[in-house]
Design brief:
It is a single chain. This protein folds into 2 domains: about 1-60; about 60-233, no CATH class. The chain is built from 10 helices and no strands. The chain has helices at about 1-15, 20-50, 55-60, 65-90, 110, 125-130, 130-135, 140-170, 175-180, 185-210. The longest helix has about 30 residues, at about 20-50. The two termini are about 40 Å apart.
Length: about 230
């Protein structure tokens, strides 16, 4: 009986968190795949250069792996950070990714269900107000922004280390951290990722005006008009 209850509880927990678990598993699988293919590619370069090969553990703790991972992370979190803040103020007619037309801004306490308008099950800061509410009401954007800054910083540190390894192998003078983040190499790698993220967001905003995906909260209901704004299926 206890086993049956535990199994039912586990199934319920998995079902309630299926979206996060799905993408979590994909993330781990992709990261492992990147590590395995990355070390193979890295060792091919080492052999061509007449240098010693490295183990998988050595590779995943190297600056080469770190810079590849973090430059992708920082661009993703920049996308989310900008999208969270920009959609407070900017609207797009017909897109489910936008708020309803005429509702730009931070909205009223009633709309946001805070203070006197908070429900019994509202988060604590929504009821208490003051600095806790001010911080909590911006917490999603702040955390996304902090992760972006930390990822960008990690990318720059790992990037200058990897760049200087190549400089030393070529008997060239290494760069300082400031010199590296001012270099074409750093901004070329960075902007390659940023432009793809901005294109993806713009495509989602515009395509969701005219195209539909039945049952998805990222799409309008199939029968909604193209001009319907802020409506999700």
């Amino acid at each position: 009986m206890n086993t049956t209850r535990a199994s039912a509880s586990l199934r319920r927990a998995v079902g309630d968190n299926a979206l996060a678990l799905f993408f979590g598993v994909l993330f781990v699988a992709a990261l492992i795949g990147q590590a395995m293919t990355g070390v193979a590619l890295y060792n091919n370069t080492q052999i061509e250069s007449g240098l010693e090969q490295v183990s998988t553990l050595q590779y995943v703790t190297s600056s080469a792996f770190a810079v590849d991972v973090t430059e992708n992370w920082q661009s993703e979190y920049l996308q989310f950070f900008l999208y969270i803040y920009i959609t407070v103020w900017l609207l797009q007619k017909g897109s489910p990714e936008s708020k309803n037309l005429g509702r730009s801004g931070t909205e009223s306490d009633e709309d946001q269900r805070v203070g006197a308008h908070a429900a019994e099950d509202s988060p604590g800061p929504a009821k208490t107000g003051g600095w806790r509410l001010a911080l909590y009401s911006r917490s999603l954007g702040l955390v996304m922004g902090a992760i972006f800054v930390l990822s960008w910083l990690a990318q720059s540190i790992a990037g200058v280390s990897e760049y200087n390894e190549g400089q030393l192998q070529n008997l060239s003078e290494p760069l300082s951290w400031w010199g590296y983040i001012s270099s074409a190499d750093f901004w070329n790698r960075t902007l390659q990722n940023w432009q793809s993220e901005f294109l993806a967001v713009a495509s989602m905003v515009v395509l969701s005006i005219y195209l539909r995906q039945r049952g998805s909260p990222e799409s309008k209901p199939v029968g909604s008009s193209h001009t319907s704004t802020g409506v999700e299926g």
